[in-house]
Amino acid sequence: MIEWAETALFERLGFLDDVYGHLPRVHISIDFTESLEHRDLVDVRLAIVDVGRTSITYDFSIERDGRECVRAKVVTALRTPDGASREWPDEYKRLLLTAGPQAPELLVVPEQPAEEPLRRVRT
Length: 123
Description:
By secondary structure, this protein is an alpha+beta fold. The protein has three helices and four strands.
């Protein structure tokens, strides 16, 4: 889910294609405070804590029904396609540090069709 939130942010800021696939995680610390179940609807929050010369640090959380279930700190390092360290371009760094809170991307859950009764078919 970290990648989903990060991808949405970079896409909105206009430089996803330039950095996608070039931000390996170099450190993750995570606390699980409540269990999550398969298909739970959750709120994912990603906040930029710091943008270094080649790195970016996020605070990340997952909430279900307003209760925090996961809290994490994630550090990534920007790399070139061949894996060498790459400095954040000044414009990207400015955007990352000034973009502020973004509107959420909401999942729309389709209504479930009423179950049809089972029909027996003679063969």
